Amino acid sequence: MKTQQTAYSILDLALVSQGHTLKQTFDNVLGLAQQAEALGYTRYWLAEHHNASNIGSSATSVLIGYVAQGTNTIRIGSGGIMLPNHSPLIIAEQFGTLATLYPDRIDLGLGRAPGTDRETAQAIRSDFMEAAHSFPKELEMLEMYFSKDNARSKVRATVAEGVEVPFYILGSSTDSAHLAAKKGLPYAFASHFATTYLSQALDIYRKEFQPSKDLQKPYVMTGVNIIVADTDEEAERLSTSLIRLIIGIFTGKREYVQPPTAMTNDLKEVMQNPQIHQMLKYSFIGSKATVKTQVKAFLEQTKADELIAVTHIYGAKERIRSYELFAEIMKELDGIPKATP
């Protein structure tokens, strides 16, 4: 079986660090994207979240435009746009415009979760639950608006018709695996936080995949938490910010990203909580040598075509350093045999 270089990318939530303004956060997002471009990353995706003071990527398409304007070659996109939050017509107009301004660089990753709490989802779109259940139909409407054939329709997204914007289906369970396979679209699994159904979802996607005009064979992206530093000890110290973020999710006390501290016994005990331990199953933390071994094993397990790395680190400098080391790891790996469709 032939081997090939596994692509590597970044998923960003534009997390706000303690003591940083939103403007500083957005500038750091752009700075990281520019570094990622120089380091050979394939794409830089921004996730849609709402009603969270520590997440800056709520106006996702606007932020995508800002990052695309400040970069030249790296693909910029959504990981993802939560389609039930929006009218497919509006998303088509937004991403048709983006792809016209930045041709061959814009990705449209699509999910069905709200990316927020129930009350906020209701405020965003009163018929959210109906739209979530109708996700396949909403996807078809979006495809229609991008089609040249829609030029004869009464309702048109004129800035999107015939514009090339690749779609990606995002998932954290098995439901979207069936849909991505049926539509013949690339599949991105959120294994950086939803670890339980990873193997099952990938198996479903690969077995049920139907070739399409967009894709002839399955294409799998998997999310992983990555924190790489010059030593295992430094990476462990940096990871304390991530642990506190996770504690905030479970306790309902979401805070800005906190500065790292020494690893304490209390934090180590938190990491052994069954729910948190499962959630962070695919978190690779350590020196370059340590993380390289972990990543190689993960690729051998999943046969993923692309890793999309999530790195929650307090400081911009340390975050960029982590992504530099991760890029070195991915370039040094010889290539892992991919699954046969």
Summary keywords:
Luciferase-like_dom; eight-stranded parallel beta barrel; 341 residues; Luciferase-like_sf; TIM Barrel; Bact_Lucif_Oxidored; 44% helix; LLM class flavin-dependent oxidoreductase; single chain
How would you describe what is shown here?
Residues 11-297 form the Luciferase-like domain. With 341 residues, the protein is an alpha/beta fold. The chain has one domain: Luciferase-like domain (TIM Barrel). The chain has helices at 22-38, 60-69, 88-101, 118-124, 128-133, 135-146, 175-183, 198-208, 232-251, 265-271, 274-279, 288-302, 316-332; strands spanning 7-12, 43-46, 75-82, 106-111, 167-171, 187-189, 220-229, 283-287, 306-310. Helix 7 (175-183) links the parallel strand 5 and strand 6 (187-189). Helix 1 packs parallel to helix 13, helix 3 crosses helix 6 (135-146) and helix 12 (288-302) packs across helix 13 (316-332). The mean pLDDT is 94.
Q: How would you briefly describe this protein structure?
A:
With 341 residues, the protein is an alpha/beta fold. The protein contains 13 helices and nine strands. Strands 1-2-3-4-5-6-7-9 form an eight-stranded parallel barrel, surrounded by eight helices.
